[in-house]
Amino acid sequence: MSGDGGTRTSPAPTAPVPDGGGHGPDGAGEPNGDRHGPDRAGERIAERLLVTVREDLGRADSKAAVLLSGALALPAFLIGRHGSPDWRGPGDLALVVAGLLWVVAVAALVRALLPRTGTVRDQEGVTYFGDLLAPFDHDALTARINEAGRDPVGWLLVQAVDVSAILSAKYRAIRWAVATLAPSAVLALAWSLTAR
Length: 196
Hints:
Elements: H1 38-82, H2 91-113, H3 138-150, H4 152-194
């Protein structure tokens, strides 16, 4: 407490800070100020690129999850409304085709949601969780992390390429799902309108 009844805070530290100060996102406090300029600008662009691709990955997963929920509700809706088909008329053939297309759509959506592992990296490195799994070699891992620290832009770009490959596979599966789910729903609806 100060003499006037207010609280006092401790003074700011006066000891030197390692490496010359803070390590904020703008590279302030880096030794000799050498993190400014084109290298740091490239790193910021690579970071932003990786963040953007990861955000798109989350959106792709959300789209696949919504489509899968709708796809799984379709058979329950049809059976709840009309009961099981009696398989007597040629109209039931439309339901069979719809069912086959539905299976392809559901398989594609499940494939889109399944986690993918691996990297397109063509050399040793540490860029995704698989690199941290057994057999664990502390010295080799430390060397790879130090090497990545010397080239942060390259490290970020490998991650961005890996995540982009995953995103591309997810959207390819979603396109397959939509291309088969739409005609499946139309055929199921046609059967629903003609079902006895």
